[in-house]
Design goal:
Length: about 80
């Protein structure tokens, strides 16, 4: 999986998380993530879990922006 060799390392670095913290968020142990990151052989299920977690973070960010816009529109329309 050449394109995903560093997915765990990259995700942890970008989000400022340890393997343990990322594991808690996606349902895997620190040892499993450490092994996958060090060997570069990331299982498809871990890849999917990380991508879903990243997508969830992005959607939460967009939802906050939408809520802010909604409040601005509500204040303007008073």
């Amino acid at each position: 999986m050449a394109k995903n060799d560093n997915l765990i390392k990259k995700t942890c670095k970008e989000l400022g998380l340890t393997y343990k913290q990322l594991g808690e968020k996606i349902g895997y142990s620190e040892a499993t993530l450490n092994k996958n990151a060090s060997t570069g052989e990331i299982s498809k299920t871990i890849e999917v879990a990380i991508n879903l977690y990243l997508e969830t973070l992005e959607l939460k960010k967009q939802l906050k922006q939408f809520d802010l816009l909604k409040e601005i529109i509500k204040d303007i329309s008073k």
